[in-house]
Amino acid sequence: MLVGRAIHTLGKDGRVSIPSKMRETLINKYGSDELYMVLLPSDILCLFPVQEFERLTERFEKITENSIENVIESLGRYAIICSDAINCKIDSSGRILIPPDMKKAAQIKQEILVIGAKNHIQLWDPELWQRERKKLERNFF
Known about the structure:
By secondary structure, the protein is an alpha+beta fold. The chain has one domain: Transcriptional regulator MraZ domain (Chemotaxis protein chec), CATH 3.40.1550.20. It has helices at residues 20-30, 50-58, 68-83, 100-105, 126-140; strands at 5-9, 15-17, 34-39, 45-49, 85-89, 95-97, 111-116, 121-124. A 6-stranded antiparallel β-sheet has the order 1-7-8-4-3-5. A hairpin with a 4-residue loop joins strand 7 and strand 8 (121-124). The longest helix is centred in the middle third of the chain and has 16 residues, at 68-83. The model has no long low-confidence stretch (mean pLDDT 88).
């Protein structure tokens, strides 16, 4: 399970380190450090192991009703998720490259909070995460 958090600085080349414990989990649980970087509709930048990305997209295939609206909605979800996804691999220094457009959309500046979120990793601007966390805590507890 991907857990924990760490703050890292974005390198001049646009790369950020992934914590070693998370890299170990990727190798031990998923057999690879290959990931899909996905910008979710709420502008959260996520890193999914290949198997988890496939599970995410497979959920859209399970349409409960055979109405044209559900088919169109499912195709729209595929388009959103897949069009904003790129395949990436952790380099030999334990880093990934964040494309400038994704960095901008996620409002990431120099510092990046890397969060383990069970089956994926999230990349956040630390200030944005604090605001979002407060919202989540109010609704959670």
